[in-house]
Write a structure and sequence with these properties.
alpha+beta; about 60% helix; two-stranded antiparallel ribbon; 4 helices; 4 strands; single chain
């Protein structure tokens, strides 16, 4: 068993391996395979199976690729999109949770989100991102 593991380690040495994009491709493959199993239309089943097969082929290509620089760039671009999507939903969740105590306003200069205490008055605000000072009704 150790000999087999050693040979596998030698084979994978210098290759990309798995990352966030590969995991996403595998999940999409599984979703498409399960979805295509429940579709009675033969043409739609064939199309979904073809897309699933191309996703798994791309995933294996990325896993065994020796061009680690390009695979890391692809993964970094994918993860930046994922982080933007997660950040959008995290902000919405936080706004809803703090809706009774805080208001969220945008800076007029840099459009950064500012978290301000809820009061019925005007307050002087300094944006932490751009440093601009302005008055805002909260």
């Amino acid at each position: 068993m150790r000999k087999l593991l050693y040979k596998l380690q030698c084979f994978m040495s210098g290759r990309n391996g798995t990352d966030g994009l590969n995991l996403f491709l595998m999940i999409m493959y599984l979703v498409l395979v399960v979805t295509s199993a429940f579709i009675p239309n033969a043409i739609a089943h064939f199309i979904l199976s073809g897309i699933a097969l191309s996703l798994i082929a791309w995933q294996f290509y990325r896993t065994f690729s020796r061009n680690i620089y390009k695979r890391r760039r692809e993964n970094a671009a994918f993860m930046s999109v994922i982080y933007r999507i997660k950040g959008f939903f995290t902000l919405r969740k936080r706004k809803w949770k703090e809706r009774k105590t805080h208001k969220y306003k945008k800076c007029p200069a840099c459009r950064a989100q500012l978290r301000l205490p809820k009061k019925n008055c005007k307050i002087q605000v300094t944006c932490p991102k751009c440093g601009k000072r302005f008055t805002m009704k909260v």
